[in-house]
Amino acid sequence: MEFLKNPNYDFLGKTKILLGVSIALIVAGIAYISSRGVRYGVEFSGGTQLIATFQNRPEVDKVRAAVDKVTSGAVIQTYDEPSKNRVLIRLPHTGGEGDLSSSADAVLKSLATSYPENKVVDSSTEIVGPIVGAELRRKAIQLTVFGLLFQLLYIAFRFGGAVWGTAATIAVFHDVLITLGLLAIFGYEITLNVIAALLTLVGYSQNDTIVIFDRVRENLKQRRKEPLAKIINRLRDGDRDHRRHLLHDLHREPDRGVVGQFPQAPPGGPGGPGGALNPGRTGWAHGAALASVAFGRREVTRIGTHRGQRPSKPGSGGW
Description:
The chain is of the alpha+beta class. The chain has helices at 15-36, 42-45, 60-68, 97-114, 130-159, 162-185, 192-222, 228-233, 238-259, 277-283, 285-307; strands at residues 39-40, 47-54, 75-79, 86-92, 120-128, 189-190. It has a four-stranded antiparallel sheet with strand order 3-4-2-5. The chain has a two-stranded parallel sheet with strand order 1-6. A hairpin with a 6-residue loop joins strand 3 and strand 4. Helix 5 (130-159) packs antiparallel against helix 6 (162-185), helix 5 (130-159) runs parallel beside helix 7 (192-222) and helix 6 (162-185) packs antiparallel against helix 7. The longest helix is centred in the middle third of the chain and has 31 residues, at 192-222.
């Protein structure tokens, strides 16, 4: 069986369309975040996370009704395997440090009185103060920014010039912005798992970018008389690039399927099992390959053409 027998797509010829779609998604995400903000998880905003184990399989609606009698704005969802009868309850920070511990006790009492037919047999509580949450949020932002910076430096070193690193960073930054915007629009909480998903997306994109850029550089050495845009857009044996990306993505699906079974989605949120981890690592990881193939090549062409640079001689390493 052979996939994509002739997948020689004119990516640079579709630059305006791809760029328009990317800009529209980025602007929509930034506008939504600017007007409504993002929903931070307990790790970043501070609050109480309660995991309650029930005697029988719990009904989330009844659990929510009991919790609403105590506090508003709680996030309630099933947790772990259905057979374990667990529910995850995230309570936002509303007052002082003492309120964080008392809110969990109040929820357990409300469950005992409002849902007596299904008793809580075990529970665990995790409390994060607002100061600690703010510190974690700051460090998460720093981690993401430093990850992008180190990627720029690594690819610049790997390929012997700043053009490659700059183009790769623009492509990955594009991936992260679109993913973050879609997560905010669809109502996912920004948790440590989401940060891990974003960094995983950066890793996927970087891997694809290195493969593509290595073939671009190889062809730049062998086709020195051809226009830069033509070389980058129509790689030698280019069909193997696209087939490899398709097969590589299909090969990763079993791993994503296993990871996607961990519950991270908000109640009523899209994505089913796996929640934010599922779209962040699975659906939009495919976009990383597209960005590397199309967006990354476009930036190399644009920056390289603007600077009028090409490899000075075969084997020189290029820009």
